[in-house]
Write a structure and sequence with these properties.
- With about 375 residues, this protein is of the alpha/beta class.
- It has 15 helices and 13 strands.
- An eight-stranded mixed β-sheet has the order 3-4-2-1-5-7-8-6, with helices on both faces. Strands 10-9-11-12-13 form a five-stranded mixed β-sheet, sandwiched between helices.
- The longest helix is centred in the N-terminal third of the chain and has 22 residues.
- It is elongated, with a radius of gyration of 22 Å.
- The two termini are about 35 Å apart.
């Protein structure tokens, strides 16, 4: 049985070193993807390039504002899809445009709807071309989250492998563009210290730093991730064959469950609950649930069933689904469980946040 693979292609690869989309590069990648599909693999492509294509068409120069990037994305997205359709025409493979924003994945129901759509496309033999909805996603353009999107998609569809194609050979001990002594790191394991990484250019939305974050996120979810040089012919095929190119991010032996992956990486907290050090220790080291007695304060407006961030010492360390609204929690914070009913006139669940099913501890 073949593997399910998410391939993220950056603008630096798609440009072929030029100022716009390089049709020859897209055809080469489409050919490598077609060969993998013929061997039984399922492929999803997370593609940057809309801003690049729009910038070329609009003849934009210089350092852009967020509004210029949005305008370029609006002009370039259709050009990007036409380029992918043309690239896959020769192997006679149907492609589908799937535009996602962070908001589509913050909500559990929409997250699952996106999963169902992508899996249906794969069953139909289609290659989904996924992109951030850059025209409206201001924050995503600012922070360059197409790499992060690819990690979310990998978890969303239960991928076996995430391939992040960039214009460098992988992760180095330092930025190889400024330090000729920098060495390629062939493998990164959980807990390893990150190396220094390069930043994106003014029109880019990623850089090596965001690829490392995405690869680590995928690995936490149990997905093998590889950062490799997509500007070199045959790199994708070599990665899929396990030839040891690029930098491998080894997946966790005990990955987060799917529901906890959504909580940790895709959910959008409606508020924050401040807990004491003892509660944090109980949650992170002992696998216990959060009780009202461990709550010191809260912020935001949330109802029972909403996602909240758990904070101690000023830092968010976990996310979970609360059983108690902000209104009620403000009244019972710091109380013992036996005191709650007398204060509220009713007794909600014993736990403010239940550990077993509804809590995800965040890694540094």
């Amino acid at each position: 049985m073949g593997k399910r693979i998410v391939v993220k292609v950056g603008s630096g690869v798609l440009s072929g070193g030029g100022d716009g989309l390089d049709a020859a590069v897209l055809r080469r990648l489409a050919g490598e993807i077609a060969r993998a599909r013929a061997a039984g693999d399922e492929i999803l492509v997370v593609s940057s390039g809309a801003i690049l294509a729009g910038r070329e068409r609009l003849k934009l120069k210089g350092r852009p504002s967020v509004q210029l990037k949005q305008a370029a994305a609006a002009v370039g997205q259709s050009r990007l899809m036409r380029a992918w359709e043309a690239a896959f025409a020769r192997p006679r493979i149907t492609v589908a445009q799937v535009l996602l924003s962070g908001d589509d994945l913050h909500h559990r129901e929409r997250y699952l709807n996106a999963r169902n759509t992508l899996l249906t496309l794969l069953r139909l033999g289609v290659v989904p071309i996924v992109n951030e909805n850059d025209t409206v996603a201001v924050e995503e353009i600012k922070f360059g989250d197409n790499d992060g999107l690819s990690a979310l998609v990998a978890g969303l569809v239960d991928a076996n492998l995430l391939v992040l194609l960039t214009d460098q050979d992988g992760l180095y001990t330092d930025d190889p563009r400024s330090n000729p002594e920098a060495r390629l790191i062939p493998e990164v394991r959980a807990g390893a210290e990150p190396a220094r990484t390069g930043k994106a250019g003014p029109w880019g939305t990623g850089g090596m730093e965001s690829k490392v974050r995405a690869a680590r996120q995928a690995a936490e979810g149990g997905v093998l991730a590889v950062v490799a040089n997509g500007a070199k012919a045959g790199t994708l095929s070599a990665v899929l064959a396990g030839d040891g190119v690029g930098t491998r991010f080894v997946p966790e032996e005990k990955p987060l469950a799917k529901r906890r992956q959504w909580l940790a990486f895709a959910s959008h907290p409606k508020g924050r609950i401040v807990v004491d050090a003892g509660a944090r220790e109980a949650l992170t080291a002992k696998g216990r649930s959060l009780l009202a007695s461990g709550v010191k304060g809260l912020s935001g407006s949330f109802e029972a069933g909403d996602v909240v961030g758990l904070v101690e010492g000023g830092a968010e360390f976990a996310r979970g689904l609360t059983n108690v609204s902000a209104r009620d929690l403000e009244r019972i914070k710091g109380l013992k469980t036996s005191q709650i009913e007398a204060v509220l006139g009713h007794k909600p669940a014993d736990e403010v946040v239940q550990h077993r099913d509804n809590l995800a501890v965040l890694k540094k």
